[in-house]
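Forum: Protein Structure Q&A
Topic: Joint prediction for protein chains with partners

I've read a bunch of threads here and the consensus seems to be that you should model interacting components together rather than docking separate models afterwards. I'd like to see that in practice. Below is the full input, 694 residues plus whatever partners are listed. Could one of the regulars post the assembled result?
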Amino acid sequence: MPVPNLKIEDLHVSIEDKHIVKGFNLEINGGEIHAVMGPNGTGKSTLASALMGHPKYEVTQGKVTLDGKDLLDMEVDERARAGLFLAMQYPSEVSGVTNADFLRTAINARREEGNEIPLMKFIKQLDKRMDLLDMDQEFAQRYLNEGFSGGEKKRNEILQLMMLQPHFAILDEIDSGLDIDALKFVARGVNDMRSPDFGCLIITHYQRLLNYITPDKVHVMMQGRIVKSGGPELAEKLEAHGYDWIKEELGIEDETVEA
Amino acid sequence: MSTELKTLQYNANDIESFSKEQNEPQWLTDVRMRAYELVQTLPLPKTEKTRIIGWNFTDFNYKTQGREVTNLNDLPSEAAKVVGAEDQYAAILVQHNGHKAYHSVSKELQDKGVIITDLQTAIREHGDLVQKYYFKAGKVDKHRLSALNAALLNSGTFIYIPKNVVIEKPLQTVYFQDAENFGLINHSILVADQGSALTYVENYVSDHETIEGVANLLTEVYVEDNAQVKFGAVDYFSKDVTVYVNRQGRVGRYGQLEWAFGQMNDGNTVSENVTELIGEGAVSHTKAVSIGRGDQKQSFDNYIVHIGTNTESNILIHGVQKDQAKAIFNGRTKIEHGASKSNGDQTQRVLMLSEGARGDANPILLIDEDDVMAGHAASVGRIDPVQLYYLMSRGISRTEAERLIIHGFLEPVVEQLQIESVKAQLTAAIERKVR
Ligand SMILES: Nc1ncnc2c1ncn2[C@@H]1O[C@H](COP(=O)(O)OP(=O)(O)O)[C@@H](O)[C@H]1O
Ligand SMILES: [Mg+2]
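Posted by a regular:
Agreed with the consensus. Here's the joint model:
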């Protein structure tokens, strides 16, 4: 398999005619983990949602390719089957559909009709991954995200990531609302995915998660675009000194997309 | 069609000679003749927000051929699909175009004196018993369609469970029609005598390829004191069959009637379900799921009447509307004066999948007694685009995602159905309808 590649060029995104992402550029290859950091309201989730194809977000300019193919031209489900995964900041709840049924449907959507995953094999894979994430077996039979706590939803997103084995994942605030133990399990799940065939974009506004998943590159997002990039040391500096020094250095007064 | 009713192509002489041909007793001929007069004068049912004027309730053939088989495997495949495995049922009765096609009754039932047979045979062999219950809970003069049922009756089933007889395995009847323009005018009666208990499943199916037709169905269920009936029904007529269905239950002291409905018709449907809780402590629970698709229009009315003291009722309905389908879900809980300490509750939920689909839930509480409890909940909503996005973001196609959401929406009702075979049949029917 050729090395996976996600390339975002001059991306602009609006919601309800409000211009939010304003000229975002980034390229990630398989084997790399990038972190996008930034204060609240700087357009991080908007970027992630637009890449996945959320119906409310409109791409007004720019180009995104996944392994050379035009991502923006695809329907949401096609993007997923092309290898993209988004762990959402606020996952939906679907009543009456068990986690297990949902996951099996999602796996089979990637397989030819008549070549569905054998039930026993599926159960074995599911058990193994739930173990690794320290999830209780009962979550397989619970309705999808219904009544899950914030932390349980995050773990469930990572469980889906591991079951679906995409070659690109965007993790949007996967660390928010997690205590330190849960954070370690989530990190364990992501690290388990690490390979030359897997690229990852971690969106966060704390450095905490990056203690457990070492990124190759760190980018700071403000006003809907990347304003600074560096290595893992940039994340540590942000942890120690906050974002103000960057704003000063770049002459930014309001870092949000409202500016 | 400017006239309210397409004219009936049968006159009084036709009906009288049909009755004679079948050697019906005079009382039944009399019911037919009186009903025929009423067909001319009574109005159609008053359906909430659904215009049924112009629907074909009257233009059909009521005499046609059926085929008797000796082996279940020889049934037409649409019928065979819904017939359960023989060892899972205490009795199976299949009727094809209004004629008995297959009939098997376990020795246990025969020994215990249970009657389950087609109505014609029952009238011949147990005439007095049939007469005792015929149109006692149901009303000939309710409206034009009930009168039509009485006038043109051409099919039916009679079931009688003697006192204190308890039957574990369910009884099943299957009505299958595949004759062009056939009108199934069916009257079924189920009597659970005092202290008895049974589970009964009725299935209506028509050939989904070809036929137009009419179905006018009346079922009377008598749950006598301390008896328990689990009544399951899966209706699955094809899109060119116009359906009027009335299921009428009457429950005595401490009797219990559990209705479980899968209303899966593809054509225009008027459905009335009426339950009278007459005796003290009578209980009735109604659970129904339905899926509307294409451009069909449906009117569902669930009416519970609390008459005895300490009676209890609950209605739980989930309906899905796809494409251009329209449906109204009327839920009426009436607590009569004197029915003190009664409790009536209803929940109706409607999910619409497309812009063109319409669903209305209309909960009504009519209460003439102070010392009671009653409640209702209703919700009507469209499919959540963010939920759909979430499922699709995992690679699931839109159709498949909708399928999951529909199953999920109906699941809380399906899960509570107490009859396994109805559950299985419904899951299969839902699967066919959401594809
Ligand atoms: N669904 C929405 N409706 C309206 N405005 C939105 C919506 N989502 C985001 N925005 C706007 O975009 C800005 C950036 O939001 P978001 O992308 O969620 O930022 P971040 O993830 O960096 O905190 C928000 O401050 C808000 O003004
Ligand atoms: Mg965010």
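Residues 150-164 of chain A form the longest helix (15 residues).
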